[in-house]
Amino acid sequence: MRLDLLIPGLSAKTDHFLFGICTLVLLRDGRRNILFDAGAYRVRGALIAALQSHGLAPDDIDVVYMSHLHWDHVENVDLFRNADIYVSRKEYEYTASIAPGDWGTPPFVREILDGLRLVLLDEREEEIFPGARTIWLPGHSIGLQGLVVDSEHGKAVLAADALWSARDAVRGKPDLAFFDFDQGLASLNKLLAAGTIFYPGHDRPFRLDDGRVTYLAQNTYRLRVAFQPDGDDLECAFSTQAGA
Amino acid sequence: MSGEITLLFTGCPASADGFWVGASTVALCRAEGRTILFDTGPYAYRPLLLGRLKRLGLTPADIDTVVLSHLHWDTATNADLFRNAEIVVHARELAYAEKPAAHDWATPPYMARALRKLRLNPVAAECDIVPGVRLVELPGHTPGSIGLLAGRELLAGGAVASARDAARGHAEVWFSDGVQADASLAKALSVADIIHAGHDRSFRAGPPVAYLGDYALRIRLFFDPVGMDQEICIRAEQARSFATWPEG
To answer: Complex ipTM, two decimals?
Structure first.
């Protein structure tokens, strides 16, 4: 299975808004184009551009594999009109009555999914694509599903927010077990044992050797602010390299 | 008697490589016993929005009216939080959002579908919400952009995105009609002395435009798996003397 990183997750936060920039991956088995997660609305343009850089348009995506139905993973799923949308049945059913206090799942998620071709997946681990197995990782959300992919560099675990960042792997405990901590802890241990390369929900992909993190991608973000009505913009950049 | 305006989020005219920032202004307008929320921000505001309302002693249930300046991803996405509120939107904007233009990347195709589940009050003309608090039509940025005028203070939404647009007399970003957008910008600056811009700090309309406050953005980086957090702070402040900063 060919695996390409479209957008790396960003482990940063502001005091004005959440970034919600999660890891988006393109999988190709030679027959189908599979997108792992759809991302937050703010990366809609970046996602289309990233697909384009691989010679693809949204209409070319055959499957969108949704890890879970939080806002920052689902807001662009409507772009993929030709795709089968693989959603965990448990996640989908949960959206009929979202727990009070769960602000992560949009109450209008069914309106986002409306008109799309949904394929609801039961809690069964299986080879769902040639060279890719489903792995159930609840805790961050009620029915989070990841993928374990046989990639050219070894077994890659697409963990989404069951592994929020590399810190979870180093500390051995989830920082953001949004739904159930004990389940989240069990899922973290399970996913760490399932491969050697990890794609966290909101961090760069990394290899783990005896607890040591080696990042496989870095990114630089540029921000421009028009603070001066008559003057120049302020520009600043920050790189993920800082902590590598 | 006109309304009392409190900003919950001060917009910021920021852009970035790789993602849309969407730092919109969200405000409360309290008048005649009514609690009106002007815009709701992007989904990325949701937990902060709930926290900021709480700090003012409010829950979403206390909001009786939500005015949506327009139906972009970064202004209208949290309207569903306000189950007791009537959601005021321009009828033309709602009709447009049912089928946004192909080039329009800012109106989520599911926005109208999601809003239809709420208690909508589509308006087709300028009107008073309460005496002294008036809905003003400001089309151009989008087909049905509106603002909320309280006395001589205007919550402008997308029609006045920034102080720079006001200073130049030209709306740089528009999705519907650029000529109309410039006319609406001029109208906004003529009906109000104080503008609460859609993506900027509040300012006196002037000329010259003059900001009423400062702005700071903290970005916390959780980049090192075994090390420390790092933080960047970007600020814009009133001009001070080089010689006397920092004081003390």
So the answer is: 0.96
Please indicate, yes or no, if residue B221 is contained in any of the structural domains.
no
Say if the Cβ atoms of B9 and A16 lie within 8 Å: yes
With CA atoms as reference, report the closest residue to B143 among B94, B186, B73, B102: B94
The whole-angstrom separation of Cα A48 and Cα A52 is: 6
Confirm whether A223 is domain-assigned. Answer: no
Q: What is the pLDDT of residue A243?
A: 45
| CA distance, residue B206 to nearest chain A CA (Å) | 12
Q: Which two tokens stand for residue B51?
A: 């926290």
Hunting for tokens 């447009």 — which residue is that?
Answer: B96
A 8-47 → B contacts, CB under 8 A: 11-21, 40-46
Total count of domains within chain B: 1
pLDDT tens digits for B204-238? 998 999 999 999 999 999 999 999 999 999 999 98
Expressed as residue numbers, the domain containing A55 is 2-217
The pLDDT value given to residue A242: 55
Q: A78 vs B23: CB contact, 8 Å cut-off?
A: no
Q: Classify residue B217: in a domain, yes or no.
A: no
Surface of A (61-100) touching B: CB under 8 A: 71-72, 75, 78
Specify if A187 maps to a domain.
Answer: yes
pLDDT at B32 over 50: yes
Q: Which residues of A47-71 are buried (b: 16+ CB within 10 A; e: fewer)?
A: beebbeeeebebeebebbbbbbbbb
* B13 found inside a domain: yes
Q: DSSP 3-state helix, strand, coil percentages of chain B (rounded to 5)? A: 20, 30, 50
Tens digit of each residue's pLDDT (9 = 90 or more) over B3-25: 899 999 999 999 999 999 999 99
